[in-house]
Amino acid sequence: MRATDRVYSSLREDIVEWPLRPGTVLVEVEQSERLGASRTPVREALSRLTAEGLTTAAGGRGVVVTDITLDDIDELFELRQSLEVRAAGLAAERGAPCVFAELHTELLAAPKLLTDKDPARRDYYEVVSKLDEAIEAAICNSYLAQTLHSLRVHMVRVRRLAADDAARLKAAAAEHAAIVEAIAGGHPRLAEAATTLHLHHSLSHIKATHSSPRRSTNG
Questions:
Q1: Closest CA to 54 of 99, 21, 5
Q2: Where along the chain do its domains lie?
Q3: With the C-alpha atoms ordered 93, 98, 102, 104, is the resulting torsion angle positive or negative?
Q4: Would you state the pLDDT for residue 211?
């Protein structure tokens, strides 16, 4: 892996998983020492993160990790409503039923992954990521898939706000299973309706339980 890619992956994970919290200033020299890389790959990685909206210029001090306010979350969910609902419908029209039938089985079992042995919920989110990837592949629309992929960079940060709420995640798994069942059955309107319901519940939960979006998953 190229040094730039390695640094970028490390910094991106620290941002979306919240070790690098909103407002953290990332200085090239400090990050070079922390990550064991020269300043050039760090500079290039920071530029990529800024292009994605995960960091922004900090007035000569380097770059700063961008904040996520409740207003930001509202805007992200507005975009999700437009993109993900349509994508679910297209996946039901164009996707391979066998792919989503298999995912349905995995999602029905997903609540069992929400254990104290995996406090970061990595196993659970891996199943969710498989669903995202399957939908992106099924819609056969490279522009929509690319936009969805870019949006999900930010949604991963938002998801972590609820990462320690097993009850909500179990409910979300059931909602995902309903979406997948509709896609596998070739029912686009039902898939769209199930996606709309899931997004409504997700947004309501985040807004009801997190008065400050700076809260980390560890409290």
A1: 21
A2: 3-65, 70-209
A3: positive
A4: 57
With a threshold of 0.90, does the pTM exceed it? no
- Tens digits of residue pLDDT in 143-197: 999 999 999 888 888 877 665 688 899 999 999 999 999 999 999 999 999 999 9
Structure tokens at 30: 């400090």
CATH number of 3-65: 1.10.10.10
Structure letter (DSSP) for residue 23? T
Cα dihedral angle (50, 52, 53, 57), rounded to 10 degrees? 10
CATH level 3 topology of 70-209: Four Helix Bundle (Hemerythrin (Met), subunit A) (1.20.120)
Indicate the SS3 state at residue 140. coil
CB-CB contact of 182 with 35 (8 Å): no
Which structure tokens are listed for 88? 């679910």
Buried b (16+ CB within 10 A) or exposed e, 116-125: eeeeebeebb
**d(Cα 54, Cα 63) in Å, to the nearest integer?**
10
Segment 54-98, tens digit of pLDDT: 999 987 778 999 998 889 999 999 999 999 999 999 999 999 999
